[in-house]
Known about the structure:
By secondary structure, this protein is mainly α. The chain has helices spanning 3-22, 29-35, 42-46, 48-54, 56-69, 73-80, 83-89. α2 packs across α5. 9% of the residues are buried.
Amino acid sequence: MSQKISKFESVFRRLERQAAELICKDTDLLTVVCGFEFGKTPVVEAADGWDAEYSYQPMMRAFYCKELVGFTTVELYDFLADAERARTLGVNH
Length: 93
């Protein structure tokens, strides 16, 4: 395992634990991804200014929507075209 990957392994495990705690039969996708604590990842801690300017956390929530459901990029775009979903994720229209 490379140094870069091993540095984030604990983050991946923490996100997996958070997902396991959040998911039940009535949980929807937005509840799960909005429950993740991305603010504690080394990337956010190292780039607070970047996060504020470019919205790292909403972008990561959108990424996890794509990955967890298996959306294509076009499907993710369509999913986020709904203003309420985008607002819930913190994505500005």
